[in-house]
Amino acid sequence: MRITLAALLLGLVVSPVGATELGDPDYGVCRGTDSRCYHDWGNFDPADGYRLLVYSRTAGPRHAHLGTPLGPGLNPPLNDDNVAVKAVVGLGRDNGFAVDYTEDVAQLGSAGRLLRYNAVMFLSTTRDTLDDPAQTALRQYVRAGGGFVGVHNAFGTEYNWPWYEGLLGNANFYDHSAHQPGVVETVGRRDVSVQELPHRWNFSDEWYNLVPYPTRVRVLAKVDESTLARGVRGSLGHPGHGREHPVSWCQYYDGGRAWLTTLGHDVKAWTDEPLEGDQYFTQHLVGGIKSAMGMAPFCR
């Protein structure tokens, strides 16, 4: 079934047949791991190629891997310290998808503009980075079958918007452990973002504790808390999540696809500077981007 953007904006979109029982009472949308929660309205034609929009605006603390704030507009000049955005642009070049980037909220202000992209990535955004038009456009875009990729501090964004919390899988950043090495465990072998990874791999991060904790999602990777030499207790006292401490997961949400990871804090993860396990992080991220865009099977 194909739907026009005009019908979408007029609110004429309905849920797929049979998906009503999959509705979430907390967020009022169809969400989870059942593909009936995906709305395939035919808005994305593979013949047009694949394109990702990276959004990294911050309205609070700014992670070092983002570097200096970007100028206005789409694809402003990058500085040497904008290492994470540069890395994603390079990943697109090496893996067959185009990448645009911005920190200008006006670039997210219409669903029509967002529908140029197969997925939108929130890359370590912080606090309230969207105005009302951008919030509306993002929701319309996801409902039209768009993909969403949330990386690291995307979980510290839009705290007061319940729909966005649901997009993250019913999860939000609470606090984190010390930045330290740990062991990531992949969960399952089917999903494209984990199928080529070792079962256990070393990585360094500030390991996020989550309140609320993700539900109705497919967990793809978790951290083995017993490998964290400095412990998992966060700065606000969160004790960690024990044996089930997720770091990456996926879900269908309100018609779209969402692939999510709390990983990516270390600047070295985005550069050529050596960091143990960074090749697996990169591989994991590329698989997640491709699946959210529809280049590969999603959330298997």
Automatic annotation (TrEMBL):
InterPro entries: Class_I_gatase-like, ThuA-like. It comes from the Bacteria. It holds the Pfam family ThuA. The keyword Oxidoreductase does not apply. The keyword Cell membrane does not apply. Keywords: Signal. Residues 1-19 form the signal peptide. Residues 82-290 form the ThuA-like domain. This is ThuA-like domain-containing protein. It comes from Nonomuraea soli. The lineage of its organism: Bacteria, Bacillati, Actinomycetota, Actinomycetes, Streptosporangiales.
